[in-house]
Amino acid sequence: MNPRNYYIIDFDSTFTQVEALDELARISLKKHPDRELIYKKIEDYTNLAMEGKLSFSESLAQRVKLLEANEDHLKQLIKRLKKKVSSSFSRNAAFFKKHADEVLIVSGGFKEFITPVVSQYHIKKENIYANTFVTTGDGKIIDYDHANPLSEEGGKVKLMQHLNLEGDLYGIGDGYSDFQLRESGLIKKFYAFTENIARESIVKKADHVTPSFDEFLYVNNLPRAISYPKNRILCLVIGEVPEESINLLKKDGFSIRHKSSFEEKYVADVHMLLLADEEKIETEKLKRAVKLKTLGYLGNAKKLDLTTCTEMGIVVFDDLKNNPRNRNFIPKRMIDFMNTGTSYMSNNFPNLQLPRIEKSHRLIHIHHNVPGIMAQINTIFAKHDINIVGQFLMTNPTIGYAITDINAEYDKALFKSLKKIDQTIKFRVLY
Fold first, then answer.
1. Which CATH number covers residue 414?
2. Looking at the structure, do residues 313 and 392 belong to the same domain, yes or no?
């Protein structure tokens, strides 16, 4: 029998985008005359502990002293934290529901604010391990339970030794206390989570750097909301492209490289291209960019070989009128295409605009516009007993663009069959 897997997940700057005690300080000290100075002290104590430069127990004690918080502040904090769950955790709620018995939240934070946040993601209360506050009768926070091992230096190690779980343990976090679990030998692998913050001293010690929870699920072949992590999607930006355009793509999680030219080393691996006005791409390079899915041009795409782009299934969005708003509009169109398959306002593709359908997988099939392709696609679905939730087809004189949403159960051999259909240009699983 295979050993059971357990997933040990940190809370601050991992499950959530922020450090909760830092946020609590900004609430409780809002009217304090020296609030900025105190904020800085609390943040410094946090970072010193996370980088392993100060014992966790000393860091925690100093931070709690500075908070001047009460239960009303905690209520405000919980509302804020619920809006600050890391995007890749939020979209993978289904994973937590399916693996509720194997997911543990282990944190040096406090149950009072952790439990209300993670419980909405199907994580069991008995699997939440954290510190607890000590309050006065009127609700003022004056201390914490010093008997809790998680309040001590090496607390996560002490807790996991006590739990003595049988199986393979995987740790996900951003700080030194998370790495200590790997150092102790209690967990099989430590994944440095960098979606919110990358601490170099921790990253270099990790077994694997995971820029998102999608990446963790992907490398461990676990069920996930999207088929391929965005951090693995290479987006090459060429020329003098405005920072706001680049930042939109970064914010969505793509792996960005900003270069002055289309360097040879990127040709075979690039998935997305954003070009400044007047930049050119040689036809020969386009033909070898076999993974390229979309190209945004902050100028007139007539300077490109659009015929080759179309033949290769590359969706092009351009800026015909040099409109200032297009520095946002063009990257947004690229993002929409990568996320939902929307080709709305493309220069060379049939215009297809459609919503994301929950609890389904979206398959994109780009093919030459010849008779009988959809019949072949649906025959394959029938052979594999696939339930079609929704199907969309748009064509132009050159290509057909088909999107099919299917239910969550499928045989991976299905994908191989769809790729083998004659006249197929590109096929991908969107999510």
1. 3.30.70.260
2. no
Q: In what order do the strands lie in the sheet with 424-429?
A: 388-395, 399-406, 361-368, 424-429
Joined together, the tokens standing for residue 96 give 């937590």
Q: How far apart are CA 86 and CA 335, in angstroms?
A: 19
Tell me how many helices (H) and strands (E) the chain has. 18, 17
Tokens describing residue 419: 């790729």
Determine the average pLDDT of the residues in 259-275. 96
Cα–Cα distance for residue pair 230/211, rounded to 1 Å: 9
| Cβ count near 27 (within 10 Å) | 17
Q: Does the pLDDT at position 408 exceed 70?
A: no
- 3-state secondary structure at position 119: helix
Residue 302 sits in the same domain as residue 174: no
Q: List strands edge to edge, sheet with 5-9.
A: 128-131, 103-110, 5-9, 168-173, 189-193, 208-210
Expressed as residue numbers, the domain containing 296 is: 233-340
Kindly report the average pLDDT of the chain as a whole number: 93
d(CA 137, CA 134): 10
Residues 6+ apart with CB under 8 A from 378: 388
Final residue before a domain boundary, out of 189, 219, 249: 219
Task: Look at residues 237, 246, 298, 241 and name the one whose alpha carbon lies nearest to residue 272.
Answer: 237
Contact 110, 150 (CB under 8 A): no
